[in-house]
# Entry
Amino acid sequence: MQTTGSKRSPCPRFRLREVVSIYFTMLTLFLVILVAALQGTAPQENYFPYKVPLDPRGLVELAWNVSYPEQVVHFQVFIKELKFGLLFGMSDRGDFENADLAVLWSDGHSSYFGDAWSDQKGHLHMDSQQDYQLLSVRRTPEGLYLVFKRAFSTCDPKDYLIEDGTVHLIYGILEKPVPSLQAINISAIYKGLQRVQLLKPNITTPELPRDMKTMEIRAPDVVIPSQETTYWCYMVQLPDDFPRHHIVMYEPVVTAGNDALVHHMEVFQCAAQFDSFPHYNGPCDSKMKPERLNYCRHVLAAWAMGAQAFYYPEEAGLAFGGPGSSKYLRLEIHYHNPLVFQGRHDSSGIRLYYTASLRRYDAGIMELGLVYTPVMAIPPGETEFFLTGYCTDKCTQVALPPAGIHIFASQLHTHLTGRKVVTVLSREGSEREIVNADNHYSPHFQVDLSPLSAGDVLITSCAYNTEDRDQATVGGFGIMEEMCVNYVHYYPQTQLELCKSSIDPGYLHRFFNLVNRFNDEEICMCPQTSVTQQFASVPWNAFSRDVLKSLYGFAPISMHCNKSSAVRFPVGRKLLKSTVRLTAKPPPHLAGQSCPPC
# Structure
């Protein structure tokens, strides 16, 4: 979805003599810098409002700003302990092959900066068009600040097109001097990947109420487990006499030094049908976690790495507290600890800003996409495999008010193999509007859409890449399992909290039967065998892959049209795709897109 005001300007045209002159002038001057001799202070922090850690060890950090009038991103890379150089850049999937790079390197005497690119073998080449423009280099007691800028679109075929959605940022640290750019061996350097949304939505910050108060929902000095992935749950109780309020804003509170470990956080409110919930502070997948905590799933706040503060529109706020509202909240933190640090303490969480001056509308959060179930799976070795979840007209007809609802924000979510996500609004059998689309997948996006009416259809499709896996990837909550979810924020609030689908499980049973007969192999389908185990037994040849794709495209769906209490609205569970009036073919917004013409 193109952000307002972000239309790309036409590329300038130069005569051949001017191009040759500019190119050789660049090569002659080439921005030779003596890094060690430069002293000064870091640029003002408020000039770079967005910030993410690039390195889990805290050695490299990126801050940036976006100028929509100039169609330019300003980057500030902070290097804590600069040795002999740094590579920073972008690529389609976070690989160092076919990447667009800004490179700072030293031969042990002088330091150099330039715009480079890598070929499909990972070899570096100087770009004939220098589009990373160095602005300043500052050394402080904390480290080195490197400031440069880059246009969204450069008309250079070797450059990455910066567009809406997730950008895969890559970095590498040079620990030894190199005689030239071409001498850098990418396979031998320390390197990494970070995913961010560079082009932030250009939304005006609403005025906040004067009587606003804050509340921090934070982990109580958790020792982050020494494993790659941990979901940590912590229960919080509001005061007994806490009255009804509106949340008007929330923001992350991340413990200093843990920026690269805290991947995402959510605050859930528990179901009001229970008078009490047990206290718990531990891993969310622990057998010691009380089963009742599974009834804490009403989302109050959700944050992912790279996202900033979230503001509600001036006419709406998210209600919590007061009669009919549970006083129990569950904080869930996803720790991503790829270097398996030990003994790291964390008290991260989310800060809620709330007011007693209730706004005109209660806001709500609705979950779209696929049900968390293993019946939705991706075969191994797939370059692009699509799964689609439906919020059908039968559900919205029953659950939404006649005047409809107004969607003002959208948060997309998949796990490790997710590559593209789109949610499309369909009315009377034809596509009307894109709710959110990301051809590189992003965690957070605020939008402004026309009303969603009763009888409309919302279709959420995800594309996955499983080339590096040798077993089927099933749907579920685990980080190695997959999701296809869009959290949409809207007003006025309704009772509809979950509008998702999966294929009818009975048709998946037919798939396993058919694969058995075709391959003359035995896939155990006895009652005690799980769907995950059955998928693990499938021989993934062309036949089984094509049959599964067809199954997901045309089999009847099992519809989940749920209230926050998990009670379903009175709509049929099993629906034919024809009743949705759209096929499950990948939406055009997920197809490969070319760069705009220059």
Remarks:
- The chain has three domains: 50-196, 205-359, 365-585.
- The longest strand covers residues 418-427.
- The mean pLDDT is 83.
- Residues 205-359 form a domain with the Jelly Rolls fold (CATH 2.60.120.310).
